[in-house]
Design goal:
single chain, alpha/beta, six-stranded mixed beta sheet, five-stranded mixed beta sheet, 18 helices, 44% helix
């Protein structure tokens, strides 16, 4: 099975500019391709992780990935999928974020011996003369056509700044630059980047008279079409300081029954034949095994096998004997969190991040969805004494979420 066939069989490929040529290219040549990552946060999240998995599949097949860190494009901000303009970051913040990305990418992608590269588009975009840029790049873009792109259409009602309007030109120029300097022939990206990728493919053709290619891959969504990777605390981060390995493991352990097979195909390297065999004969107990496999494999890729084993052991102990151990997500309460030697259960739920507000915590308690130290809580006015937290208090939310609070 070729790498292209595997990507297709796993359901990773969404759209292609030239399907036959791209398949031939990946099957018969050693291709330099790139994916762009704008440095908008100090950690990659699970949406980026899917892109790293695709890069790894292709690298294992002998192709050369280029990870483009958007130290230049992040100065402008991609309007795609946003109802408001992105927060403008300082150059220092962007450089810090890019360095965090580089460290996380190195866990999955082999950058040794020129097998892959990391480049920063600020190295060329920030030095460009604006008039020269307009004359070389801007002349090839039709404003009328740009306004039909999804990345801009969604912003027209609220207002699209001229700053953001430049983003497509800058991203397209990246492809032209990487084609000239590194021989990049293919740009990959999430399916929401289709318009921007088409811009780059067209620009290379117009400026160099050469055919290059674009391919998007499936976004990580639930069966209902909602983006995966959102938790009550926000995004599902790859940084263990932002999302602990146990929380990361539990997210995948608790995915919907309808989504587990798709996730195994998209974001693990479990052989596709094994996944398809599981899919064909899935029962209740096998579903749980599939979820455990998914959680373990993804956590191992992101955090290493030792952390994956710890998370698995913690999960088994919780769902088995109801016990807790040191790897459970933990919130350390401060003296200032207590009033008159106690803390209200609503305040506790919010402090631990288990609920976003007192109102949500109250509803959850009234619906019988909260247990503290194996005791169901029915009164939202309960006050817990400070001394209880000296050994740690175990909070259970719903059937599967456990959290420890201590002092």
């Amino acid at each position: 099975m070729t790498v292209f066939e595997e990507l297709k069989r796993r359901g990773l490929i969404a759209q292609m500019t030239h399907p036959e040529q791209i398949e031939k290219l990946f099957n018969e040549e050693k291709v330099t391709f790139y994916i762009g990552f704008d440095a908008t946060a100090d950690s990659l999240h699970v949406g980026h992780f899917l892109q790293l998995v695709v890069m790894t599949h292709l690298q294992r097949a002998g192709h050369r990935p280029v990870a483009l860190l958007g130290t230049g494009t992040t100065m402008v901000g991609d309007p795609t999928g946003k109802t408001d303009m992105r927060k403008m970051l300082t150059p220092q913040e962007i450089d810090h974020n890019a360095e965090c990305f580089r460290r996380q990418m190195s866990k999955l992608i082999d950058f040794s011996d020129n097998k892959a590269m990391i480049v920063r588009n600020g190295d060329w975009l920030l030095k460009m003369n604006y008039i020269e840029f307009l004359r070389e790049v801007g002349v090839h873009f039709s404003v009328n056509k740009m306004l039909t792109a999804e990345c801009f259409k969604s912003r027209m009602e609220k207002g699209l700044s001229f700053l953001e309007f430049n983003y497509m030109l800058m991203q397209s120029y990246d492809f032209l630059h990487l084609y000239r300097e590194l021989g990049c022939k293919v740009e990959l990206g999430g399916d929401d980047q289709w318009s921007n990728i088409l811009g780059g493919v067209d620009l290379v053709r117009r400026c160099e008279g050469k055919e290059v290619y674009g391919m998007t891959f499936t976004l990580l969504t639930t069966k209902e079409g909602k983006k995966m990777g959102k938790t009550e605390k926000g995004a599902l981060w790859l940084d263990p300081e932002k999302t602990s390995p146990y929380e990361f493991f539990q997210y995948w352990r608790n995915v919907s029954d309808d989504d587990v097979i798709n996730c195994l195909k998209l974001i693990t390297f479990v052989p596709i034949e094994q996944i398809e065999e599981m899919e064909a004969s899935m029962s209740g107990s096998e579903l749980n095994q599939a979820k455990e496999l998914l959680a373990f494999e993804v956590t191992k890729l992101v955090h290493g096998e030792e952390e994956a084993q710890k998370a698995l052991a913690t999960s088994k102990s919780l769902f088995g004997a109801g016990a807790a151990d040191e790897d459970m997500p933990t919130t350390v309460l401060l003296d200032s969190d207590f009033t008159d030697g106690g803390i209200g259960v609503l305040t506790l739920m919010v402090k631990t991040g288990l609920c976003p507000s007192n109102g949500e915590a109250r509803r959850l308690i009234q619906q019988g969805g909260v247990m503290i130290d194996e005791e169901k809580i029915t009164d939202p006015k309960i006050i817990l004494e400070k001394r209880r937290f000296e050994k740690g208090v175990i909070i259970k939310k719903g059937k599967k979420v456990y959290h420890k609070a201590t002092i």
